[in-house]
Amino acid sequence: MVSQETVVHFGAVYLAVVVLLVAGALDIGDGTGPAATAVLVLFYAIFFGGGHLYLAIRGDDGMVPSDARWRYLAMLGAVLSGGVLVLYAGDRTIGTITLEAVSAAFFVLIVGGYLLTETIVAYREHRPE
């Protein structure tokens, strides 16, 4: 039998595809302007985080605890917003360091911090007292 979480995640993927189709039909997401960027960020946010957001708001502790869903959504938001910031900041430098190098380090720290946090939480939940 298909679980409720699977149905929710498939619904989020379906909604993300609908966003792309509607944006394409309205000629919003074509090109490289701010509208196209907003459509792609919305698509990725719904695709990767829509199901988790719905289940986290409901407080549904299915296979993944709600706290872990909120941490994942925070990481996803940081990565998506950081990507948009880097996209619009262009080819700037901070001293002699390019913004691309700083952003790569930022993304590695965000994702690495998320994985480390999840590992520590899982260890603490499953270790014997």
From TrEMBL:
Keyword annotations from UniProtKB, A to Z: Membrane, Transmembrane, Transmembrane helix
Domain of life: Archaea
Keyword Transmembrane helix recorded: yes
Transmembrane segments: 7-26, 38-57, 69-89, 101-123
Protein name: Uncharacterized protein
Organism: Natrinema halophilum
